Amino acid sequence: MPTNGLNGKVAVVTGAGRGLGRAYANALAAAGAAVVVNDLDEAAAAETVQQITSAGGEAVGEHSAVGSSEAAQALVDAAVSNFERLDVMVTNAGVLRDRVLWKMTDEDFDLVINTHLRGTFTCARAAAIQMREQGDGGRIIVVGSPAGQFGNFGQTNYAAAKAGIVAFARTWAMELGRSAITVNAIVPTAWTQMTATIPIYAPLAERVEAGEPLPREVRREHAVGMPEECAPLVVFLASEAAGEVTGQAIGIGGDKLTLYSHPGEAAVEYSDDGWTEEEIARVWAERLASHSQPYGVTLPRLELT
C-alpha cells in the first residue's frame, strides 16, 4: 500500500516495464504517487501496472517508444487525463547497440541517440511545459551512466548520449529554477541481465540466480546491488525533502552513494600574448602532464571464493 511522502503526486516513468525502470515505478507508487508506466513492450508495462495496483497503488500503462515529440506529449497527456496533473518525470528508457567506433553503423548510432538523448529532451520538454502551466513546481529526473561520466569501450553512442543527459540536467536546472522545477541526473549501477554478461561477474551469475546476496566488495567497490536498491534515490529526488537539490549528478548502487563533480579546470597556465606550439609542448611536459585525467570505466579486481 502507498505509505508516505508523495501522496497526491503524479509521476511518469519511461522504460518502466522491467529492471531499473520497474523498480522506480514501484517505489514511487509505494511512496504514494500515481504512476504512468511507459514501455515499448506493452505486456511488460502491463505487468508493472499490475504489480502497482495489486499493492494498492494507482497506475496506468502507456505503450510507446520514446524519442518523438508526439510520444512525449502522449505521456504527459496520459498523466493529466488519468490523474489531472504531472509532478515527476523520470526519463529512464534506453537501448544499447554496442560496437567499437570503426564497426558502429549509422543505424546503431542513431537509435541510441534518439532513444536516450532525444527521448530525454522531448519528455523533459513536454513535462516542463505542463509543470510550468500548473505553476507549483515539479521534478525532472534524468538518467546518466558511468559510461557518460568516464567513457566506455564499445559505447560511442551510449556514452555520448549519457554525457549529454547530465549536461541537460545542469542546463535545465538553471532554466527551470524560477519555476520551482528541480532537475537532477541519477547515475545508477545495478545487477541486471546486462550486468550478468560482463566477464568479471560470470562467477556470480548462478549465485544471484539462486538468490544468494552479492558479496560486500561487489556492493561497495563495484557499487552493484539489485535494481530496487537504486529506487530510493528517485523517491528522494521526487520528494519535498529534495526541494533545494538541483543541477546535480548523483550515483547510487549497492552500498555506495556518490555525488559527482562537474567538469572543471584541472590545471591552468598563462602566457602573455598567447601560445606557440613549442611553448605548449614545454609547459605540457613540465606542468600539465601530471594533471592528465583518467578515462574509461574501470572495475576493481574481484577475487571470489
Tag the structure with descriptive keywords:
Rossmann fold; eight-stranded mixed β-sheet; alpha/beta; 305 residues; 10 helices; 8 strands
Overview in brief:
The chain has 305 residues and is α/β, with parallel strands linked by helices.
Structure characterization notes:
The protein has 305 residues and is an alpha/beta fold. The protein has a single domain (10-190, 225-259), classed as NAD(P)-binding Rossmann-like Domain (Rossmann fold, 3-Layer(aba) Sandwich). The chain has helices at residues 19-30, 42-54, 69-83, 106-134, 146-150, 156-176, 202-209, 216-220, 231-238, 277-288, and strands at residues 10-13, 34-39, 59-63, 88-91, 138-143, 181-188, 249-253, 256-259. The chain has an eight-stranded mixed β-sheet, with helices on both faces. β7 (249-253) and β8 (256-259) form a beta hairpin. α3 (69-83) packs parallel to α4 (106-134) and α4 packs parallel to α6. The longest helix has 29 residues, at 106-134. The mean pLDDT is 95.
